Amino acid sequence: MRRPRLIRDLEAALGRRWVLHEPEDLLVYEYDATIERSLPEAVVLPSTTAKVAAAVQIARGHGVPVTARGSGTGLSGGAIPCEGGVVIVTTRMNRILRIDPENRLAVVQPGVINLHVSEAAAPHGLYYAPDPSSQKACSIGGNVAENAGGPHCLRYGSTTNHVLGLEAVLADGTIVRVGGETGEAAGYDVTGVIVGSEGTLCIVTEVTVRLLPRPESTVTLLAVFDRVRQASEVVSTVIGRGILPAALEMIDGNTMRAVEPFVNAGYPPDAEAALLIEVEGLREETEEQARSVRSICEELGAREVRIGLSPPERERLWAGRKGALGALGRLAPSYYILDGVVPRTRLPDVLDGVYEACKRKGMPVANVFHAGDGNLHPNLMFDERQPDATERVLELGEEIMRLCLDAGGSITGEHGVGYEKRDYMPLSFTDDDLQVMARLKTAFGTADGFNPGKIFPTSKGCGEVSSRMRKAIAKIGEDAYV
Amino acid sequence: MATTESIEKELASIAGRREVRKPSTDLSVDGFAPTAVVRPAGYDRAASVLAWANERGLAVIPLGGRGHVGRGNLPARYDIALDMTALDKVVEFEPGDLTITVQAGMTVAGLRKTTAASGLLSPFDPWAPDGATVGGMIAAGVAGPARISLGTPRDFTIGLRVATADGRISRAGGKVVKNVSGYDLCKLYSRSMGTLGVILEASIKLQPLPRSQETVILDFDSPKDACVLANRAYTAGLNLHAVVLSRSEASWQLALHLAGSKAGVERSRQEILRQVMAVEGDANARDIAGSTDVALSLSTLPSRLPSLLGEMSEAFPAAQIAAYPTVAICNLSGEAAAIDISLVQGVAAAHRASCVVERCPPDTKAHLDVFGDAIPGLDLMRRIKQTWDPNGTLSPGRGPGRL
Asked: Distances from the Cα of A310 to the Cαs of A297, A307, A317, B66, B214, in angstroms?
């Protein structure tokens, strides 16, 4: 349904240039890094908080839902618009407002790219710790919405552990500030519930983040194994011996074989797993920990352990991990990235289960993931032109989610629920759990104004998108991120 | 109005006769005594008591070790004390996962013993671990000098089971260290002072126990130098486990607790000593002691802390001052006569510091909001309280803005 009055009102408030409504302009905004699509009625690109508030009020006045969007790299469909809704894109709100080195914090607009915060803080010996693999492209606003993670969450925690305060626009257009600069704000931790709320409670327009001092020393180890199980046992042994690495990533054989021709990481063609283990801290400590990690790897059957000390050496070891998903894109026309978490000690069994299930369904799978956190990312590789491929991918996805839950885990560790996993929520939570959660929407006065149809299994307002899920496992760009 | 006897009788039919007790003064809150006390032995019973009280229009205050019961505003009403200390079991502990799930009434001392036996460190850092309960620490959001390395309860609480005022038991988060399924209500219940729900069970992220530990105590003439040193040590990545700066008679004493590998601790100690002449010792300067009448906690930015400390020191010569320099928190405590709360609030405001009254006599409390008068987002907090507890059953009045 066309709404010329909505467009006119938005143009009056934001300027014609920053309101998109022609079908060819809207196409770019119908998807994120997941598999679903839905065309909005209009896309607006505000430059200030006041303009975000104006757009929210106008959309509300017309009874149209609003979806906030950062860089569109999300992996759970969080930024997929509601059919006929308004998308508020934050890419023009991309200023770093302040770096305060003495107090180790930064105040940024939501459209600022994650990596840019660390780059701006670097001259002061500081950095922003959360590092999703898409950090060259993803925005801080999107990170806040999804409570984004990354390889170094293992030691430093997710986005929520680094956000001190927020400015946000509520569903009625009110601008609020919560938290502060100290992380010790009085009263309820409203900041803590906004982080990870996937754009369903408010639109974040300014973020105050904590910066950490750069560690004195970083050592990266790459250990190669003949069997996946050996690698996953190393994971629990390292942590069991009191070493908490900064990052502990696993790359399986399928991934290594896909990456090798492009990255020349030196992975042996017959190896079945590699671990990337990074330790950080004082020189004395990283040396000692690296020695311990190396001997654990060797004890448990590593055929080779490489150590990187200098930044170029370390980058070489990381190259295979970072280039993994791009390379996987060459193995199959499409792939579907899953995100599940299990308690660390269950990793070996659950991984076996994942391979077994994929084998049973005849679906090639490549696992490249945050092993230290127990955060799995199986990539299912398929060809959507085959008649039953989509069905099989979805069935397998659900089976793997159930494996994670049966092991005491979670259906998402860092990608969010979004559209993609809302129907798995009842597997994880009771009706009571979900009803109490939904109270937050009432408290924020959101109703279906912000990003309806996300997180919660009931498909109010956006049912047409969900019904597409089954047919829509279409192209996923090679640049999808984990 | 129901009589005490009838309330006790109704309670006994819900929670079991053995779990209902005579009210005693030691469960009073800010001088208010409950009409009845119930000490539930199961989650369902705790929830049933809430549902019943909610129906009857009675006010319930959940209590743990009561070590931080002085936090929060004056209760508006107080009928039933919900003593959570019978729920004190370990629910699930797999050391290799670096997580543990325990019932809310478990003491921090008990938790420490359990985790330490497996080489793991419990992240709670209370003044008195024997009395403090896990549920109470989370609900009051208590953290001590080790917050620099361990964070506060909101950082390491990964899952909660909670009973809400309507008697519903619900779960938020889970048992794994990384989890973004649904709203993170763990954050909301943490430091909500029992005004939104009663914590029944908590899943906690643990850390490996450090292999080596050492405390270095340094004396400074001015708080500024001490703050500079502490922040330098932090940004240099030295192995600081806990840091506290306290005023003694003539000087300022900085206690740096170092933890990590033997080599890391030794290197950290040397780096610190290279910068200053130091006296080493076992002295363990800690959080503000629990015996004084009045305690306040001021939170500012590291850059503003030295002048805040200087001014506090001058204005309150008879008070105890203890600060966490790297996170810029200043704790002030003493006898009521020595501390004029409105004066502290004034100094705090001048330094753009938030100021929370952690403890004060009830008659003083009656005249102030202990969380301060300018709480960012208070309107949202009010709406949250209204949605979670429309009848005002849970710890009414004790929350921010007297919610």
From this structure: 21, 10, 11, 52, 31
